Amino acid sequence: MIDTNDKVQLIVGLEIHVELATKTKMFCRCRNNFGDPPNTNVCAVCTSMPGTLPVMNALAVDYSMKVGLALDCNVPDYTKWDRKNYYYPDLPKGYQLSQYDLPLCEHGCLEIPLADGTQKKIRVLRAHLEEDAGKNNHEIPGATGVDLNRAGVPLLEIVSEPDMNSVEEVAGYARSMQRLVRWLDVSKANMQMGHMRFEPNINLHITRDGTTYKTPIVEVKNLNSFRSLEGAVAYEFKRQYEEWQKDPEGFSLKKLGKQNRGFDDAKGVTVFQRDKEDAHDYRYLPDPDLPAVIIDDAWRERLRDEIGELPLARRARYIEEYGLSFKDADALTQDAATGDILDSAVKAGADSKRCVNLLLGRGAAIANERECSIADIGITTEQLTELAKMLADGDVNATAANKVFDKMIETSGAPREIAEADGLLAVKDTGQIQQWVDDAIAKNPQAVDIIKEGGKKKEKSFGFLMGQVMQASRGAAPPAEVQKLLREKLS
Amino acid sequence: MSGLIELSATQLAADIRSGETTSVQATQEYLNAITKLDGKLGAYNEIYTDAALDRAKQIDAKIAAGENPGPLAGVPIAIKDNLCTTYGHTTCASRYLENFQAPYTATAVKKLHDAGAVILGKCNMDEFAMGSSTENSGFAPTRNPWDIGRVPGGSSGGSAAAVASRMCAAALGSDTGGSIRQPASFCGCVGFKPTYGRVSRYGLVAFGSSLDQIGPLGRTVTDAALLTGVISGYDPHDATSLPNDVPDYLADIETPIKGLRIGLPKEFFLENEGAIAPDTRAAITAAIETYKSLGAEIVDVSLPHSRIDIDADGKMSSFAVSCYYIVCTAECSSNLARFDGVHYGHRTGENVDGILELYSKSRKESLGEEVKRRIMLGTYALSSGYYDAYYNKALKVRRLIADDFVEAFKSCDILLAPTTPTTAFKLGEKTDNPLEMYLSDIYTISANLAGLPGITLPAGLSSDNLPIGLQLIGPVLSESTLLRAARMFEKTAPPIIPPMVKNSDT
Q1: Domain span including residue A438
Q2: Comparing C-alpha atoms, which of A412, A417, A332 is closest to residue A377?
Q3: Is B155 in the active site?
Q4: Which of B83, B237, B379 sits opposite A53 (nearest CB)?
Q5: Are A197 and A52 found together in one domain?
Q6: Which ipTM score applies to this complex?
Q7: Fewer CB within 10 A of the end CB, N or C, for chain A?
Q8: Over the stretch A271-320, which tens digit does the pLDDT of each residue have?
Q9: Over the stretch B78-88, which tens digit does the pLDDT of each residue have?
Q10: Which of A39, A144, A289 should one mutate to test binding to chain B, selecting the residue with the greatest count of B CBs within 10 A?
Q11: Known catalytic residue: B292?
């Protein structure tokens, strides 16, 4: 519990490591693929055999620049590679190729949604490209195995400013970043596969009796789920406040500096790893094996063109242009492909409202069942356009359209063919509809009486008669037409 | 003896191609020479007797079948033991890699194979190319064929000794601060360090990555040109290799150099009498006269940041040497970090308490004194708080040294200098004084710092019958000019042969 005399502000900056989804590794042409048997995606270069040299994967630079440009970062003309020297068995060169003082992207920001519906800008200090390390495997009895499949996989490290002040903001930022890299199609950002890893830097600014105290900064290393990220930040908030309460003068940033802690998922607590006295001296030096990367306007422009519209811009456009609610617009901009389908269908002449209803109706339902995005259920622009047009033209009613939707996802068929084959096309023959209406009236004198009496039950009985007609037509009668004819007959 | 080993590599290739002789015959003769001499010299770490003869047979068969065997048709060549090959071992003369077998072949060696060369074996060197005498080999020192009490120079001392003693037709070495040119000079052969990036470094075990360059050692300038042409070129495996087309270095090698402007850096000549041994100075002065007689124009130039200072006690120092030993040690401290006892190479047999002890024991047991010294120096130079004072400052000095050359080449085409301050020194003479050892590269280091091509060729013998080297340095990618200028001098000078080779012939 926070003492009523204290004003406690949580300060969090977040480092996010994003593994880029290039086909090959950063500095050799080995496959970049998660889950293959140990040491199968390795070569002389990524096992650091003597005499081997790195050769840059330009696509990884493209991907990183896309993220940087999408974050409104400055992507400078000149960037270079540096060696970060340290010893660890999963780092066979004894140094990691990274970027030290001249990162590929710097000074951007990411807007994140807050619970109250407003947005907050989180500043991004820098994003630099580096190579991932391998993995130590401690599951072998009496030995440690080293798997170098991951060694040399391109890794983008995105470092925020300490702009987050709540667990919710940290989670919101992390999720927005996940959405962005997926949107840009530069990473699968699959947490289970370690595509995204978090390292929050956390401390508290506590004001008591007009004095502000800063607690030591804790960097929690290597968190690989949103849950542990949130858990670690929440735990540190509590722990640091409690530590500070015990010794407000001693437990300070000035005296203790920074320390690294790990997070115990099972217990939900952070665990001390090392403090500043043990901090590595990485002895950075410019890598003499890789030429500097020179970036010109043409390169940046090409990538800006490839990026296209960003999620927040698209969401705003949907609210403005298609008149959608924030919620609907947000649901349609979780990935780029869903909105792309929507936009192409509208461009092809389909009514936006009808397209949106189809996508967020059966589309979202199927996506939810399959745990994928709406686009990933396999709907095509052509299918959506045709079905929306059929609805607009009264060729199918809403119920039939849902049936057609499910079938066209299942079979990849064309909506009109499905509707024809399954007898779901609306009956446009007024004589036939008239017949069904007359039959319904004839067979249900009680309902007709109630309607004619004009009492409270009138609407219910009208609905009953509507249902009878629809049933007789097996759903193929256009409801508007049925309603019109019924009203005429019964007025 | 039929004397095949006396032929130049160029002549031997021509004779094998024409059927005058065979590769098997030449290879056998070289193997015989190795059997006879290498016990005394210790130039080779490993000899591929069977593989070399098999390879020679293949080349002969190709020729018999009318196929083009390549420009090095069947010529027996030795390579420095820091060039990776899928056959044999690649040890860098280090106990750490004593049993190491590389999973791939260096691009330069692959190019030799493709050109039809027969690889005789791997030559001794200073461990990881760190040294100027080959006394830092983790196995045994190599001796100079002119006087086995003296060092062959280094670090490509094995390659130089093998070439000079006719235990191979030519060899590859590597040059980080003079490691081709200095031993070639000490052993009386031609040594050529091409422009940085001209030859791919892929498969050359790195020492100072921004300085390392593979190059040939041969008995003639033409042989050096032939090998350089074979091993040069862009390599997609080396991002620092140059994309420029490789010219035919033999095309105008016989063209006279009348009108060529040769610059004499005053810092290497006019100042500091004591920086050059008298015999060496005399030989270089004579070489300048020879060039005048060939029609060259001699101009005075200045390389202020490569100057050599001598204090009251006669101790030499130079910006270039200081700068070099910060850059190369910093790079080597990082390059050699991979030799950690975990993935390959030597791992301590002792019980260890944790990974740190595994690293330190494995390295301590297997790396030599000089290698450890340089790793420590480099680690220090890169340490937090010292980076700006050392490494960053060295990079600035390096730029100034390079800029001096650009300025100098505005008034001349190539530079002329001694290769080394003295002729070959005695074994053990400098092993206790690393700084003095470092100064034997005082004239060669600047070219590495500036990334320039440099060639050394014999310029006569000293009064105690030791070879003296003449060095020519040119601008980036001036290989053709350098080779031609060297060739024109070579034509005027009588060939030199070590007495032990002469005597073994009789």
Answers
A1: 430-490
A2: A412
A3: yes
A4: B237
A5: yes
A6: 0.96
A7: N
A8: 999 877 667 899 999 999 999 999 999 999 999 999 999 888 899 999 99
A9: 999 999 999 99
A10: A289
A11: no
